[in-house]
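Appendix C reproduces, verbatim, an entry submitted by the partner laboratory led by Prof. M.T., so that reviewers can inspect both the input and the predicted structure.
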Amino acid sequence: MELLLSRTLLYGVLASTGIIVIGLVLMSASGSTGYACDSSGDPSSCLLSSTDVTTQLYPSSLGSIFSGLLALKPFAVIQLGVIVLLATPVVRVGTSLVLFADEKDRAFVAITLFVLVVLIFSFFVVPSIPIFKA
């Protein structure tokens, strides 16, 4: 059980790292993020500036990230890597839930299910709460 859980984390982090590196290579090769940011044309000025960048310039939803992936936009590829990294612990908790259920350990199934519900709540419900919007 512990080997499967540790490999889940390892493979998730490796996949995420690989995806992010591919995005960085695409960005280096093209010299662009794939999105229009400002009039200077320098992608680093968009990524490193402290000015407010409107949400229309970079993908801010799963659908817009998917569209960017289909167009091989480097920034969308990097964002996919970050999403994979964020999803890795959630997959680990889900795997733990299945393994505890297979062992018929009700106490750990309940605890793990609670943790999974809190994680899913924090990803999907908390961002829609006005006080947590940036």
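The chain is about 70% helix and 0% strand. Additional entries are available on request from the coordinating office.
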